[in-house]
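Still learning folds. Look over my entry:

…
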Amino acid sequence: MSLVSNNSAAEALPEGSADQPSLDERRALIQRVAGYDQITRSGRLRSFLLYVGKLALKDGSPEASEEEIGIRVFGRAASYDRGQDNIVRVNATELRKRIESYFSTVGAHESLLFEMPRGGYKLIFLRRFPEVKDLQVPLLNDPQPTGLAPLEAESAFRTPRHILIALWTMASLLLALAITCAVLFQQNRTTQKTLHPWEGKPAVAAFWADFLNSHRTTDIVLPDASIGISKEITQHPVTLNEFLDRSYITQIQSSDLSPDRKADLNSIFNHHLVMYGDLRAAQFILALDPLFSPFHLTFSRFYEADSFNRDNTVLIGGNTDNPWVYLFEEQMNFDLNQSGAIVNHHPRSGEQTAYEGSNTQGGETGYSVVAYLPNPSRVGNTIIIAGTGSEATTGGAEFLTTEDQMEKFRNILHTDRFPYFEVLLKTSQIRGTAFNAEIVAYRTYPGLH
């Protein structure tokens, strides 16, 4: 594969060369390519590019192996068989095509480009130099051509042709210079947006920069609504152990449910069900779009305990639909219990022991808990967002990504840096309007840092 067109040339840039692009140039270029619509429409390809891009920005960093990418990007188990599972190679081929498409279409103006040569998973940066044809511009003191026709001789007061050519050439060069300046200005604006994605949002930046400061991949773990449906039918909540070994499925078959109901549950378990509000919550987080701590969207059923040892985690939903939340319940004061209410285990003055959502014809009132805690291995961070209803969960995610809300919370805490915390929110909505989130109670855990 070649990223260079027939009317241009490119040179690879070895590490340490005088023309080596700066870290900011390479970082901004990777972000622009990652934002190309042919790549963003595939979350896996975008995560793939950002992962190898992160390694390419570290001088002397070794090339990522197929196994490493399979585990870190595609969520495969550490023992997966690459001979039977070629997901990395298949996606690498597609990623190369889309990188080439970017540089030949919307990125055709880029002077710096990169490619991922076949047979490996390392980005190579190149400079593209367009070929310039010699311009034959007549000099002002060129001798007049001989053999002029009488009509030309009569045009002594007209502007000579070679002067017109020179003026036209100069105008063309000035136009090209103006276009180049406009392109560079736009690139600079894009670079600044990339390097400062939360400019003008100091409270949001203070929280998320701290959460992502380990430059780890952040796993956004969607809940499994089929687990909640199973609990409603069987009246038996699924524990974390049952969820991990999938014994809750076999228990259905040995239960006294009717054959039709067992068949219904099996059909439900064979689908990946996500509530709309939970998906909207994930979208609020994904919209933050960090470059060096890429987000990886996954499903709680496919998540693995080992991921807590290497990644940051955002758990969406309570333990009914997302049993991974059980790992943190002993640390939490506000708990979304199996009945769908948020329990306040240690109420303070003026606080209730439980908070339940309600629906009326005029609107909806819900409660959500947002917890920011260290993960079990304490090598990364965890956020838990759980609401009494799907829309309340959306409100919790919106709270974490809205400047007004986070600034108000930071002022309540009287601190510049957010400690680990839990916050209980009341979310209300009148039909046809946006959610409004109100802080009801909170707890902070500065000693956990």
About this structure: DSSP finds 15 helices and 14 strands in the chain. Residues 134-157, 189-196 have pLDDT under 50 and may be disordered. The radius of gyration is 30 Å. The chain has two domains: 8-132, 202-224+274-448.
